[in-house]
Design a protein that fits this description.
This protein has 546 residues and is of the alpha/beta class. It has helices spanning 2-13, 19-43, 96-121, 133-147, 156-162, 174-188, 199-209, 222-234, 240-246, 264-274, 293-301, 320-330, 347-356, 380-388, 409-417, 438-446, 465-471, 499-510, 515-520, and strands at residues 253-256, 281-284, 309-313, 336-340, 370-374, 398-402, 426-428, 454-456, 486-488, 511-513, 530-533, 541-543. It is built from 19 helices and twelve strands. Helix 10 packs parallel to helix 11 and helix 14 runs parallel beside helix 15 (409-417).
């Protein structure tokens, strides 16, 4: 419009006898016509063929500045198409129609290439497919099974095959049957539409729903009180009033799965009433708020105590000197100690154990049977004093040292050597990264009477297959391999826990050995040491997950 206006003004101002004006107007018109023809394909119809350019300086290929938003012209192939390289493709500008046409052609090209690759990979099945065909088929199958429940029926033989029995009834062992039965019961008693709660669970749920109206539970079993406590915690009803009902006069075991809502004053009042009436066990979890210096003071003030078990978890208020005072007040009857996540316990606790649970000749007054320590900040020197300074662990039957940074092969060896007579029945050393195969030899040597039944070594990454195979293999000058009922090797190195280790562990646990055959035969093959199969012994729980 501006060019036309200038040309009109020029014509009006020019005279009739001036040929130079006519020549200038004609040149301007020719120039405008050339520009219009060149830009017509972009501004009007994208599918129109490109007009030839007469101006060299205005050529799209020679110009340094392009009129498209991307700075260049869009096209799949400037020299030729993919199907026929000799055919020149039309060069297109960026626009809604051209972009849509290019996307459609690119999609068709990708589809063609995918079909060609599938035909080359599987010539027999050259049917057209899509990446989501499998998901679509699964969705349709699920819909068919919902509409026709009979399709979900599976025969017993097929269930045996799916469970790994191979369809052969003779190859199904007792452990596989128990696992399959447990999975079936779990599926039937789950939280799905087929869930039918037991009569016990119905009663517990009804009591919890109306717990604010209960003043006393009476003479009910400890397991019932525990179930009620778990349900109260799950529904958020475990408060001070519920604690008073659970910790009523006459209970022998005070077990709470969560003490977060119980104050220390309320707990101390309950101890003053329960300890003289025969309280024998205190089992508390998340007890940091209620069990501290004041609770220890109340326990130490009671003269006639019958406590045989103390288990505290998360007691962040319990100091090292408080633990010394607690052990001194209860050592005469105490036989089981369990501390989990108690950050203030230290070396004074270990010295108190060595002092109060040593033999009567050394001035001890108690007999410790169970010791469980998990996530407790004990030093290596404190653990050395626990095993080397006295014989406080001589009668120990269960040892648990889990997730303690200072525990290493030397500590375990000293502690196991302090246990006399091979009385140890359970060992749990899980979560200690510094332990190696050396602890296997120490455990084998301390099992002189063959009483070891539970071994938990979860999370020990440094154990090797050679060490475990030697642990379960008869060796001269060493006690027989342990006849375990429970074996936990979860979270260990998956390359080291192999079939050979499990076979040797099962043979050691499931067969009786003839001592006369062992003495007469020099072979160390476990199969040659089998005397008869024991019907009452064998591995009951095996965990090699992770």
């Amino acid at each position: 419009m501006s060019n036309r206006r200038r040309a009109r003004n020029f014509v009006n101002n020019a005279g009739d006898g001036e040929p130079a004006a006519d020549d200038g107007l004609q040149a301007m018109r020719e120039r405008n016509r050339t520009v219009a023809e060149r830009e017509a394909s972009r501004l009007a119809r994208p599918d129109t063929s490109e007009a030839s350019s007469t101006l060299g300086h205005a050529s799209k290929k020679k110009s340094a500045v392009m009129s498209t938003p991307f700075g260049n012209m869009m096209g799949r192939n400037q020299s030729g198409s993919k199907t026929d390289p000799g055919v020149q493709e039309q060069e297109e500008w960026c626009g809604p129609f051209s972009v849509a046409r290019q996307m459609i052609s690119a999609r068709e090209e990708a589809r063609r290439l995918r079909e060609e690759q599938q035909a080359e990979a599987d010539p027999e099945n050259s049917k057209e497919s899509h990446p989501l065909d499998m998901e679509t088929e699964l969705a349709l199958d699920k819909k068919r099974r919902l509409e026709n429940p009979s399709l979900n029926w599976v025969s017993r033989r097929q269930r045996m095959t799916n469970d790994g029995a191979g369809g052969d009834m003779a190859n199904v062992n007792y452990y596989a049957k128990r696992r399959r039965r447990f999975n079936q019961q779990k599926s039937l008693m789950g939280n799905g539409s087929n869930y039918v709660p037991s009569l016990f669970q119905l009663c517990v749920n009804y009591l919890v729903e109306n717990f604010e109206h209960i003043d006393s539970l009476g003479l009910v079993d400890h397991s019932i009180r525990r179930a009620l406590c778990e349900r109260l915690v799950a529904q958020g009803k475990m408060n001070g009033a519920a604690f008073d009902v659970l910790a009523e006069m006459g209970v022998e075991t005070l077990e709470l799965v969560d003490c977060a809502q119980v104050t220390q004053d309320q707990f101390c009042d309950a101890l003053r009433a329960l300890l003289p009436s025969g309280l024998r066990a205190i089992l508390l979890k998340h007890c940091g708020r209620c069990f501290g210096t004041q609770a220890v003071q109340v326990i130490s003030e009671i003269k006639e105590l019958e406590l045989f078990a103390i288990s505290l978890g998360g007691a962040y208020l319990l100091k090292d000197e408080d633990v010394v005072k607690l052990i001194g007040a209860t050592a005469r009857t105490l036989s089981s100690i369990d501390f989990t996540a108690c950050p203030l316990i230290g070396s004074q606790f270990c010295r108190a154990l060595s002092e109060h649970f040593s033999s009567p000749v050394d001035g001890g007054v108690g007999c410790l049977l169970e010791l469980s320590l998990q996530n407790v900040p004990l030093t290596k020197e404190a653990l050395f004093s626990l095993g080397a300074s006295s014989d406080a662990l001589r009668n120990l039957k269960s040892l648990r040292l889990k997730e303690i940074e200072a525990v290493d092969d030397e500590v375990v060896s000293i502690i196991l050597n302090s246990i006399d007579g091979g009385t140890l029945e359970g060992i749990d050393l899980g979560g200690n990264d510094q332990l190696t195969d050396d602890i296997l030899s120490s455990m084998r040597r301390c099992n002189t009477k063959g009483n070891l039944r539970a071994l938990q070594l979860s999370g020990l990454k440094n154990l090797t297959a050679i060490g475990l195979e030697a642990f379960f293999t008869p060796i001269d000058d060493l006690p027989a391999p342990p006849m375990l009922r429970k074996l936990d090797l979860s979270q260990c190195s998956y390359e080291e826990i192999n079939d050979a280790v499990l076979i040797l562990a099962a043979k050691a646990a499931s067969f009786k050995r003839s001592l006369t055959d062992v003495a007469a035969d020099d072979s160390l093959n476990p199969e040659s040491l089998v005397h008869e199969v024991s019907s009452t012994k064998g591995l009951v729980h095996v965990n090699v997950g992770g």
